[in-house]
Every structure is written in C-alpha cells, then in structure tokens.
Amino acid sequence: MKWALILGSSGDIGRQIARDLAQQGWSLYLHYAHQQERIEKLIGEFQSKFPRQDFIPIQSDFMAADCVDRIVNSIFGVDAVIFAQGITHFKFLHDFTENELDEILRMQLKVPMMILQRLEDKLARAQAGRVVFISSVYGKSGSAMETPYSAVKGAINTFVKAYSKEVASMEITVNAVAPGAVNTQMNQMFDAETLATVRDEIPVGHLADPAEISYWVRVLLAPEAGYMTGQTLYVTGGWLE
Ligand SMILES: NC(=O)c1ccc[n+]([C@@H]2O[C@H](COP(=O)([O-])OP(=O)(O)OC[C@H]3O[C@@H](n4cnc5c(N)ncnc54)[C@H](OP(=O)(O)O)[C@@H]3O)[C@@H](O)[C@H]2O)c1
Q1: How many CB atoms lie within 10 A of CB 185?
Q2: Does the beta carbon of 8 sit less than 6 angstroms from any atom of ligand 1?
Q3: CA-to-CA distance for 209 and 162, rounded, in angstroms?
Q4: Which one, out of 107, 144, 152, 191, has a CA that is 20 to 30 A from the CA of 66?
Q5: What's the burial of 25, exposed, middle or buried (CB within 10 Å: 0-12/13-18/19+)?
Q6: pLDDT digit string (tens) for 27-70?
Q7: Average pLDDT of 221-232?
Q8: Integer angstrom CA distances of residue 133 from 68, 155, 164
Q9: What is the atom index within ligand 1 of the atom nearest the CA of 8?
Q10: 99-124 pLDDT, tens per residue?
Q11: Ligand 1 pocket member 52 (CB < 6 A)
C-alpha cells in the first residue's frame, strides 16, 4: 500500500488532493494546523468509502518550534510528500511586519525544507519517491501587493530544480504545480467585484476548481512519471502566461 503525506490537507486544494489520492487507493497522513473538524469529517468520509486504507491525522502549526518533530515522528513509511499548505497577506511590502515576513518564509520554504531533510531516507526507500509543491504562477510573474508571497513561490520553483538534482539517483522526483487563481477559501478575502475582474482576465474564463489542480499532482505521482523532475507545471487557464 502506498502512503502520501499531504501538508495542508485541511485546505481546499489539499483536501481535493486527499480525496483524489484516497480514490486511487493511497493511504494518507493528513496534516492540518487549525481546522481539526474538517480533517475529522474527511477521515470519517474516507473510512466508510475506503475501509482497506489507513488515514492518520497530524496536527502541526508550522510556526511552533516542535512543528517538524510532530510531523516526522508520526511517519513510519512514505512514498509521496505533497506541500499544499500556505498563506498570503494582501498589502504593500512596506506595510509588512517582521513577524508576517517570517511567517510566509517559514511556512512555505523553511519548514518544508526541514521536513524533507528528515524524510529523505524514507522517500529513498520508497524506490519511486515523489515530492510535489503547490507553488503559484506569481512565483514567475510576481504580483503587486503579494510581494513576499511571490518571492517565496519563486524560491520554491528554484528549490525543486536544485533539490531534484540531489535526489535523482535515489529515484525521488521533485516538482511543483503552480496554479493561477483557484476557487478556494484563500481567495475569500477578495470581494465579488475583484474576483470578477480576475476571472475576466483568465483566458479560459473561470477560476480553477481545486480538482483542476489536483489532477496534475496525480500525474506527477504516477509510476510512469519518474522521468519528470525539477519542473514547475503552470496550471493557470492561460492567465499570466
Ligand atoms: N487559492 C489560490 O488561488 C492559489 C493560487 C496559487 C497557489 N495557491 C497555493 O495553493 C496552496 C493551497 O492553497 P488553498 O487555496 O488550498 O488555501 P487554503 O484553503 O487557505 O489552505 C491553506 C492550508 O494551509 C494550512 N496552514 C495555514 N496556516 C498554517 C500554519 N501556521 N501551519 C501549517 N499549516 C498552515 C491550512 O491549515 P488549517 O486550515 O488547518 O489552518 C490549510 O490546510 C497554497 O500553497 C497556496 O499558496 C493557491
């Protein structure tokens, strides 16, 4: 049985990835930070639909000092690690506090690197280990009012290039899926008019459904995808391309 660790499985994109992988027969470590009820509900749904698979919740706030231990100490074997956690703040760079800058860098870059340091051996033992980051098209295009977020997503796109070279001989692939705008709770900070303006700019004419992002994660996890590594797949409906 294959095991995937999904960081941020309580988020809208992470939850969709969890649903799709559970459907494909994966057992899952389901990470969350605050939304415990969402994860309990999801596990309840999975246990009745997929009784032969296992689903283990892992609570860890990436701002806590013991956050990496809380995750890696719960893992006995793992074939795929998917980073779908993330936050953003919508404001000018000059309005960011030092804590907010630390939060964005720590949550999306530093803690994922620390988790991979500790799970690399286990991924190597999987013999077709997979690492996938949910990045963003802003990591390539940059977005005003989301400068630290854009910077960190750009760093992720470079991280996958570099780290994929280190672990290729262990048959571990490392890639990123970079969405444009996705219909999730992260975008609930925007009013309907702003979201309509974004939608009008997207060539395919709608924000992505989380399933349209999750599909590409499944592609990268497939056994046949072992020759694809170090890449960022832009899944934007043609937006900002
Ligand atoms: N939505 C978009 O338009 C869009 C576009 C491009 C890229 N992305 C990227 O896609 C990923 C998922 O985004 P989403 O739209 O699914 O967002 P979401 O629904 O808001 O989910 C965010 C996830 O991050 C977790 N998280 C928040 N604070 C955390 C903390 N302190 N420690 C650890 N985990 C924490 C949340 O856990 P709890 O809920 O349990 O706190 C949740 O699982 C992010 O990396 C985001 O940057 C999103």
Answers
A1: 11
A2: yes
A3: 30
A4: 152
A5: exposed
A6: 999 999 999 999 999 999 999 999 999 999 999 999 999 999 99
A7: 98
A8: 17, 11, 12
A9: 43
A10: 999 999 999 999 999 999 999 999 99
A11: no
Give pLDDT, residue 241. Answer: 86
CA of 238 to the centre of ligand 1 (A): 22
Question: Measuring from atom 21 of ligand 1, which residue has the nearest CA?
Answer: 11
| Ligand 1 contact, 84 CB (< 6 A) | yes
Q: What is the distance between the alpha carbons of residues 187 and 175, in angstroms, rounded to a whole number?
A: 24
Which of 6, 150, 184, 206 gets mutated to test ligand 1 (max ligand atoms within 8 A of its CB)? 184
State the Cα–Cα distance between residues 241 and 235, nearest whole angstrom: 10
Task: Provide the mean pLDDT of the chain.
Answer: 97
**What residues contact 29, with CB distance under 8 A and at least 6 apart?**
3, 4, 5, 6, 56, 58, 74, 75, 78
- Cα separation, 99 vs 86, in Å, equals 15
Q: Is the CB of 132 under 6 A from ligand 1?
A: no
Find the 13 Cα to ligand 1 centroid distance in Å.
8
Residue 163 annotated as catalytic: no
Q: Sort strands 27-32 and 55-59 into parallel, antiparallel or unpaired.
A: parallel
| pLDDT value, residue 175 | 99
The CATH superfamily label for domain 3-235 reads NAD(P)-binding Rossmann-like Domain (3.40.50.720)
- Residue type for position 205: G
- Residue 143 near ligand 1, beta carbon < 6 Å: no
Q: How far is the CA of 14 from the centre of ligand 1 (A)?
A: 8
